[in-house]
Amino acid sequence: MTGIKHGVRMRSIAALLIIALACLVSALSSAAPSSAPQQVTLTWSDDPRTTQTIAWQTASFCPRGRAQYAEAAAGNGLPVNAVAVVARGEPLLTDGEKIIIHTATLTGLKPGTRYIYRVGADGGWSEPLSFKTAPDEARAFKFLVFGDTQNDVYDLWRAVLRRACGTNPDAAFWTVVGDLVEVGQDPEQWDAWFDASQEAIDIIPVMPLTGNHEYYTPLWGERSLPSMFTARFKLPGNGPEGMKGQVYSFDYGDVHFVMLDSQAREGARFLPDMLERQKAWLEKDLAATKKQWKVAFLHKPPYNSETARGNGAVKAAFVPILERHRVAVVFSGHEHVYARTYPLHDDAVAAAPSEGTVYVTAGRAGGKARVKARAGEWHEVYYNPAEEPNYLVVKVAGNVLAVEVYKLGGDLIDNWKIEK
Ligand SMILES: [Fe+2]
């Protein structure tokens, strides 16, 4: 017995020495030590009023990650009374190299309060960063919507995010309407995307959704479930079975947000009943909310611009449910144009704007533009940002939901609102 214990202890000591040595070698040989946190990302996997989820990666298995946080006092440093939370570590294989995704969810936070935090472990910590919890009562707030950020190069995306968050540093959160990267199962593209997103992703939470490109693999024509998306974004697990962390809903202020997955074709091999699963879930989810506003996100637009790219099955699955539950706005992407429909109900213009659903295609926030797009008969406003990417600022205040759409350079493309 003693011999077994001794052997286990010796093996443990040897393993610790190997890990420590690996960390030391890595720290000495690389500008970014493996134990230093990278791609620090804020999301909400639970209530935005009282929790904050933080994820980050390290390049190899070094000490177990921790998050330290405290209410923000004067100055930007981490106060000495910071609370520590041990992170959960999950290995992820990327191009044959093992990395660790660390996740910590801070709970029991005060609503409407700014906190300072840092993540890491002995040997490597992030700089002190901050976030703000959602207020307890429904106050006016804004969030940012970005069209597809995809391409192989993310310099334009970096510029759009910098501009949008620089002019709206008080945004509660931001989202990308799918197609964040060109090849969703290519870890190098995610590294480039997160690198560009460091402009804001560690100080303003991101609540993204999947597009068809999140299902693409580096092998042309092969598809996969969007496992790199779900591994890196820690989102609410309240979605339908088999789609948790990918299809979800959450509340902020007086708005209920629903993030859906329109990739029935790309995911057919893995989840042939993807639309049916979501329909049943969506019906229940929307029936349960008491929020004044309901806003949905869906990568492929039900009311598309290009007839050749129609999304009939997606439209048939979701639109009747969304309209029955009076969802005010549905944001989509996929087409890389900015398009806004009249308020619609049952495929016709609604009797009053507040009785219809406005379908918005968000344009593009990355390098990929479409030249041949054209408006559909249902579009009240249509603009192709072929020259310059764009972003949307959505403000919700009481019974008014207002949207401003800007070019990267600051010119206004569209400005509209819904009043209840
Ligand atoms: Fe797409």
UniProtKB/TrEMBL annotation:
This enzyme's EC code(s): 3.1.-.-
Residue span, Calcineurin-like phosphoesterase domain: 141-338
Annotated Pfam families: Metallophos, Pur_ac_phosph_N
Signal peptide residue numbers: 1-31
Organism encoding this protein: Anaeroselena agilis
InterPro entries in UniProt: Calcineurin-like_PHP, FN3_dom, Metallo-depent_PP-like, PAPs_N, Purple_acid_Pase-like_N
UniProt protein name: Metallophosphoesterase family protein
Keyword tRNA processing attached: no
Keywords carried by this UniProt record: Hydrolase, Signal
Domain Purple acid phosphatase N-terminal: 37-133
GO molecular function: hydrolase activity
Keyword S-adenosyl-L-methionine: no
Broad EC category: hydrolase
